[in-house]
C-alpha cells in the first residue's frame, strides 16, 4: 500500500476495504451540515459504491484515488484526486475531515501533500476544488493552499461532455458552488 508521509499526517491510498470508512466519514452527523444540504443530499451507501468504486485501488493511478488521512494513529479524514485529460490536463481534489480534526491544519497539510504528489507523479499543473460557498472554514483553508477564484473559470473547459452534464453545476448548484483554481 502506497503512503505519502507528511510532517504530522500520512496519506494512505485507500483500497476497496476502506470504502465504508470513507463513506462513514462523509456522512457523519457532525460534519454532514458542512457538506450537504436539502437540495443536494448525501449519497446513499449504494450510490457511493456505484459512483466511487473505481477510486479505491489501494495505489496511485493516473485517473485518481481516495486516500485516508492518518493523524496520530487514527483516520482523521479522506482526500481524493480525480485527474482529467479530455479537454485540458487537471486534477480535481476533494477532502473531508472528522469534526474533532477540524481547525488543526490537517486539511491544509493533506491538500499540499497530495497536490505535490499529483504534480510530480503525473505532471499536472492545474488543480480545481469546488466547495460549497457556505463552508467558510474550508474555503479559507483552500486559499491557504494557493487556490483562488478565477473570474474566467469555465467548467466546460475541464469536464468531458458526459461529466459536464452530470457534474457541471457542482455539488451545490451553480449559485452555491465555489470554483477554486490553483496553477503551478
Automatic annotation (TrEMBL):
Keyword set, alphabetical order: Transferase
Gene Ontology molecular function terms on file:
acyltransferase activity, transferring groups other than amino-acyl groups
Pfam families per the UniProt record, alphabetical: Acetyltransf_3
Residues in N-acetyltransferase domain copies: 17-181
- The keyword Chaperone belongs to this UniProt entry's keyword annotation: no
The lineage's top-level taxon is Bacteria
InterPro entries, alphabetized: Acyl_CoA_acyltransferase, GNAT_dom
Recorded protein name is: Diamine N-acetyltransferase
Species in which this protein is naturally found: Natranaerovirga hydrolytica
Species lineage? Bacteria, Bacillati, Bacillota, Clostridia, Lachnospirales
Amino acid at each position: 500500500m502506497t503512503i505519502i508521509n507528511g510532517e504530522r499526517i500520512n496519506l494512505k491510498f485507500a483500497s476497496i476495504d476502506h470504502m465504508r470508512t470513507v463513506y462513514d466519514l462523509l456522512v457523519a452527523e457532525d460534519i454532514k451540515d458542512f457538506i450537504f444540504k436539502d437540495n443536494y443530499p448525501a449519497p446513499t451507501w449504494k450510490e457511493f459504491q456505484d459512483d466511487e468504486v473505481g477510486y479505491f485501488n489501494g495505489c496511485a493511478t493516473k485517473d485518481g484515488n481516495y486516500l485516508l488521512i492518518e493523524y496520530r494513529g487514527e483516520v482523521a479524514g479522506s482526500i481524493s484526486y480525480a485527474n482529467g485529460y479530455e479537454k485540458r490536463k487537471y486534477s480535481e481534489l476533494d477532502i473531508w475531515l472528522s469534526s474533532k480534526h477540524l481547525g488543526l491544519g490537517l486539511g491544509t497539510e493533506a491538500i499540499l501533500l497530495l497536490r505535490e504528489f499529483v504534480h510530480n507523479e503525473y505532471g499536472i499543473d492545474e488543480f480545481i476544488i469546488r466547495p460549497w460557498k457556505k463552508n467558510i472554514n474550508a474555503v479559507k483553508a483552500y486559499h491557504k493552499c494557493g487556490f483562488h477564484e478565477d473570474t474566467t473559470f469555465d467548467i466546460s473547459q475541464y469536464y468531458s461532455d458526459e461529466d459536464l452534464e452530470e457534474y457541471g453545476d457542482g455539488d451545490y448548484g451553480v449559485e452555491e458552488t465555489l470554483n477554486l483554481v490553483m496553477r503551478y
